[in-house]
Task: structure prediction
Amino acid sequence: MRAQRGVTLIELAVAITIVAIAAVAVLGALSFITSRGADTMVTQQAVAIADAYLEEILLQPFAAPTGVPTPTQRQYFNDVDEYNGLLDGGACDQFDNCPTSLAAYTVSVTVTPTSGLGGISAANARRIDVRVTGPAGVSVLLSGYRTNY
Result:
């Protein structure tokens, strides 16, 4: 009679144990990645909001035209300094359109004179800080500089 070849019960148990350990490791990693996916989306949304505000401010003239009163509504802001102290709840656009999907975000803007730009006086340079806070304690700060050129 020929000797039969095959897998013994011990070999089968070892193989099942190795496959189970590998499956637990892979599933654990996938679980961690998916649980962090929402935080990444919230952070990216906060960055997009801050970028939109910063771009809007940087596109404004450095100084207001002479003889023009300081507006109180954002849609009428006509220079960089008028954004100082802006606080928007809900990440609204400049016409006060506030999407309900962005209601959990808050935007605050600070504009300060700065002289740290290689010889440019504080009278001719502004640092603009846009801070966006969102759900789950997400906070993003984008800064930019505007000079009087």
User: Anything to note?
Assistant: Residues 40-147 form one domain. The mean pLDDT is 86.
